[in-house]
Design a protein that fits this description.
The chain is of the alpha/beta class and 250 residues long. It is built from 11 helices and 8 strands. The protein has helices at 16-29, 48-54, 81-87, 97-102, 107-119, 132-136, 140-149, 157-160, 181-199, 216-223, 240-247; strands at residues 4-9, 37-42, 61-64, 91-94, 123-128, 164-167, 208-211, 230-233. An 8-stranded parallel beta barrel has the order 1-2-3-4-5-6-7-8, surrounded by 6 helices. Helix 1 runs parallel beside helix 11. The protein is globular and about 45 Å long. The structure holds 2-phosphoglycolic acid. 2-phosphoglycolic acid (PGA) is lined by residues 9, 168, 173-174, 211-214, 232-236. Residues 9, 168, 173-174, 211-214, 232-236 line the site of 2-phosphoglycolic acid (PGA).
């Protein structure tokens, strides 16, 4: 049975005190969401520690939104996977389209980050997805395939077993425009097929999340699809009530 996951990507939102309040709200309502759904929140680096403390015993896991390519040393401004893991983070988002688009992350960068994450027992949530131009040109399958082949195919079977994938069409992120449940299922099934070509039956154990303007009103339909195992939630994760409602949407 694949893990059901609802992960909140807070991005560069919330001040430390606001983040703690949001985490308290998530903790307070966690019991309303089935235990069978793994709930994860990914706050900014500055409040990982306080959010982790707030969520102790609340059955909510915490992830970082990124990690450095290098292990340690003279890399001003960077935050290492080891630092994140030492705080008690379980997950790390890697390859989010905003990092690819605004900070020039490539498969080469992401291969290094993946390695650092696994060295520190962090479970990566690896993001893939096409932009609008690629979708309109009918290139979404090949774009997503390349993003997987160039990075995920370098993992060992043991590492792959820890990986979560998030399919996030760039044209749906923060735009209010969601992929239809059919569009999501079509590409999720394709991603699983690509994974199966390399990892065999283990592909059936990999959780593939949908992301992009997912909200309480559309989550139920999207999550009802066979190959959609949950969501990576941006905007709607900033309100505990909405975030938890998405968790209840399965
Ligand atoms: P959104 O963001 O839910 O605000 O569209 C999703 C994401 O980028 O992870």
């Amino acid at each position: 049975m694949r893990k059901k996951i609802v992960a909140g990507n807070w991005k560069m939102n919330t001040l430390p005190t606001e983040g703690v309040e949001l985490a308290k709200g998530v903790a307070a309502g966690r019991a309303e969401v089935c235990d069978c759904v793994n709930i994860i929140v990914c706050p900014p680096f500055t409040h990982l520690q306080s959010v982790i403390e707030t969520l102790k015993g609340a059955n909510v896991a915490v992830g970082a939104q990124d990690c450095a390519t290098e292990s340690k040393g003279a890399y001003t401004g960077e935050v290492s996977a080891q630092m994140i893991a030492a705080l008690g983070c379980e997950y790390v988002i890697l390859g989010h389209s905003e990092r690819r688009q605004y900070y020039g992350e490539t498969s080469e960068t992401l291969n290094k980050k993946m390695e650092r994450a696994f060295e520190n027992n962090l479970k990566p949530i690896y993001c893939v997805g096409e932009n609008l131009e690629e979708r309109e040109a009918g290139r979404h399958f090949e774009v997503v395939k390349a993003q997987i082949e160039e990075v995920v195919f370098n993992l060992t079977a043991e590492q792959f077993a820890q990986l979560v994938i998030a399919y996030e069409p760039v044209w749906a992120i923060g735009t209010g425009k969601t992929a239809t449940a059919e569009q999501a299922e079509e590409i999720h099934a394709y991603i699983r097929e690509v994974l199966r070509s390399k990892f065999g039956a283990a592909a059936d154990e990999c959780s593939i999340l949908y992301g992009g303007s997912c909200k309480p009103s559309n989550a139920g339909e999207i999550f009802s699809k066979e190959n959609v195992d949950g969501g990576l939630i941006g905007g709607a994760a900033l309100k505990a009530e909405d975030f938890l409602a998405i968790g209840k949407a399965f």
